[in-house]
Design goal:
The mean pLDDT is about 85. The chain has one domain. The chain has about 70 residues and is an all-alpha fold.
């Protein structure tokens, strides 16, 4: 989610303007989350499961082409 569409419940202004301390804190948190990347929110178990699926697909592809 991007913070440019959010409205602050404290001051009723757009969060991206950062008018109050609540807006500024939310803006900082959202910017930090967006900088982490697409895999940052995934649990380690999910990442391992994705890796296993990817390796299985590669093994199947290698078996079919051989």
């Amino acid at each position: 989610m991007t913070y440019d569409r959010l409205v602050c419940a404290n001051c009723a202004a757009p969060v991206n303007e950062g008018r109050c301390p609540v807006c500024r804190a939310s803006r900082e948190r959202l910017q930090h989350e967006q900088e982490q990347g697409i895999f940052a929110g995934l649990s380690p178990v999910t990442l391992v499961a994705l890796l296993v699926v990817l390796l299985g697909a590669l093994a199947l592809l290698a078996h079919q082409t051989a």
